Amino acid sequence: MSVLVYAENADGKFKKSVFEAVSYARAIADQNNTTLTAISIGNVAADELSALGQYGAHKILNVSTDKLKNFINQAYASVIAKASEAEQADVVVISNTFSGRGLAPRVAVKLGAGIADGAVSLPDTGNGKFLIKKTAFSGKAFATVELTSANKVIALIPNSYKVIENATGAKPEDFTVETNESDFKALLKEIVKSTDKVSLPDAEIVVSAGRGLKGPENWGMIEELADLLGAATACSKPVSDAGWRPHSEHVGQTGIAVSPNLYIAIGISGAIQHLAGISSSKVIVVINKDPEAPFYKVADYGIVGDAFEIVPKLIEAVKTY
Ligand code: FAD
């Protein structure tokens, strides 16, 4: 057996979630006394590719052709499946990012593999089983699933596994694959970034606000706090429905699922549909003037009080820290 991890790049660079996935995949390889191969698709410089060896990849495959320059779900899934077959990998690890969520099931279908998407822990391989804890019901619960197939695909939630330095000295090598024309029916032509701010799904800190903020004119303090903390801003659904904030910031069951190290919820009641999108956050801080707000039930820290008094004080405290 061997393990394959897909290293997704953003504009030729690897994000922290890639190094988490590589560290996680290496831990699975170690559990099974086998080796780890990383595969990158697209234009990534050799130095950046070599970083995959810093976190435990024994072999680094680089697929860099003009045709595969931009992310195409179907085509990338074919390449990963072919690499998995070439490497005789039994386990394929993919980050559970926006693109990873589309890729993982496609790779699983191509390999006839069982899939654990939204995984948050290493597999428990005791008694010859392969059990994994994963998020379920749009993040409202955790489930433990057993993968019984020979091939297995795991989509790992960002921020759920630590980055572990484990240098192997591996150097990238070119990997050539035949592509199928049928994989190129929908082509990504261009991505226009609407902002240079921290991207919400990848953020390590999220400052999120709800209807308790009263109106869009009051988001200045939320943005200031987020900027000071290097955080992404987010909001509850009614806030984006009302047009106070863009829909891209809406977190929850019908919005984006986040898994930051720190989620600060300001003036948000904590409805179950909102909690569905934040349940894998490591530390949750709630600021709400209602001590009975449901959000306090899942909070690690709570400040009961008026956001308009507390947030400016927090900003001053962070500035003087
Ligand atoms: P409110 O419920 O109005 O709560 C505002 C909170 O602010 C209150 O707790 C109040 O005590 C507090 N507050 C008021 N003033 C202050 C102040 N000055 N200082 C401090 N605190 C203050 N919601 C989502 O967020 N995401 C989803 O994905 C989502 N999907 C849904 C899907 C379905 C099918 C349905 C039916 C609903 C969905 N909702 C979703 C809506 C959800 O049920 C809640 O209505 C919503 O999350 C409430 O938003 P809120 O907490 O911002 O507003």
Automatic annotation (TrEMBL):
Residues 3-192 form the Electron transfer flavoprotein alpha/beta-subunit N-terminal domain. GO terms for biological process: fatty acid beta-oxidation using acyl-CoA dehydrogenase. Pfam families: ETF, ETF_alpha. FAD binds at residues 211, 267-274, 288. SMART domains: ETF. GO terms for molecular function: electron transfer activity; flavin adenine dinucleotide binding. Keywords: Electron transport, FAD, Flavoprotein, Transport. Its cofactor is FAD. Binds 1 FAD per dimer. Belongs to the ETF alpha-subunit/FixB family. This is Electron transfer flavoprotein subunit alpha/FixB family protein.
